[in-house]
Amino acid sequence: MELHWLLVSLFLFVAGVRSVALTTTIAANQRLCFYVDVDEKGEKIGFYFAVQSGGSFDVDFDVRDPNDKVLLDGKKERQGDFVFTGNVIGEYSFCFENDMSTLTEKLIDFDIMVENEPRREAPAKPGQISDTSSALEESIFRLNGMLMNIKRLQKHFHTRERRGYSIVESTQSRLYWYAIFATLGIIGMSVFQVYVLQTFFTKTGRRYKV
């Protein structure tokens, strides 16, 4: 019976969270924006992004509230993880900009999460329960914290894997073209050497008319 109530409470807790996780490609000199709605003041907004491939793995970003006020921004950032409070009801914009690249596109993973309820603070000491909290609520809070830590670790390892794969692909492409140019250079040098040797052993004479 306790397990049943735990699952029901966990479902209600998760139901109060809206989350969007996407992967997108931003072309060179492109600005791309995404939007979420905040229905009540005081909602917590979580924003995470990581550049998976492209160039130096960096991108410009900014977050604006419905009044077009800049809440967060950054230049040439590889990744970021932010949590802030939505004090204005309306549509919030999350924009990425790839102005520093003239040819290279960027692959970005990002996650936008809106919580309908303020996050609970962890107890001051392990096992300590506040007057307004129950043992069930504390268990749900701890379970949610562990799930969030696992999610962050997964994102971290996924980002490292994608960046490593991108570096390997870039190195492989450079080695391929280097091998082609080196082969062409060797062939050209061989032809030039044969030509020079032929000129050394070829007898040439000149005729003069008197």
Spans with pLDDT under 50 lasting ≥5 residues?
A: 1-15
Q: Using the coordinates above, name the CATH class of the largest domain.
A: Mainly Beta
Query: How much is the radius of gyration in Å?
Result: 30 Å
Would you tell me the overall average pLDDT?
A: 76
Domain count: the total is 2
Q: What is the overall shape?
A: elongated
Give the strand content.
25-35%
Descriptive account of the structure:
The protein is of the alpha+beta class. The chain folds into two domains: 21-116, Jelly Rolls; 134-191. The chain is 39% helix and 33% strand. The chain is built from two helices and eight strands. The chain has helices spanning 2-15, 135-201; strands at residues 17-26, 31-38, 43-53, 59-64, 70-77, 79-86, 90-97, 106-115. It has a four-stranded antiparallel sheet. Strands 2-7-4-5 form a four-stranded antiparallel sheet, with no helix packed on it. A hairpin with a 5-residue loop joins β4 and β5. α1 (2-15) crosses α2 (135-201). It starts with a helix and ends in a 9-residue tail after the last helix. The model is unreliable at 1-15 (pLDDT under 50).
